[in-house]
Amino acid sequence: MRITHKVDYGVRVMATIAAHERDAPGRPVTRAVLAERDDVPPGFLFDILRQLRNGELVRSVRGGDGGWLLARPADTITVADVIRVLDGPLASVRGVRPHELMAEGGHEPFISMWIAVRSALRSVLEHVTVADLASGSLPDDIAVLASQPDAWDPHRAGR
Predict the structure, then answer these.
(1) Backbone angles phi, psi at 19, to 5 degrees
(2) How far is CA 154 from CA 51, 123, 137, 146, 157, in A?
(3) pTM of the entire structure?
């Protein structure tokens, strides 16, 4: 899976907004603060925030004290939600979702393998929330996966 700059920045921005809301409930965080805090180019940040707003993950507040707030509680927004809003489906093969491959002429066991890949991605990305990231900790089962020595070896698949 390739994580784009947009997704990386978007996830970090969402965690920053969540942490800000935790520390200052009801007070929006400005785009300038987000750009500086998360080292996101301002023009790129504008596009990311627009997509997150259109995806109903954040909302904007106008005025002198305006800025950005989460559209719903941080513990209900997963990393998968952010990825889907910014980049589309978690897994696709040649631009087709794995469960649609049969109609595109796909064959077994390839279709099932790509379905399993999507399931593995979901097992992490649908269980880590913006609140988890804002708090600086991962759910226990995800932390265990990340703590495995093979997880850190770029040349090995985790077994």
Answers:
(1) -65, -40
(2) 32, 20, 23, 13, 8
(3) 0.89
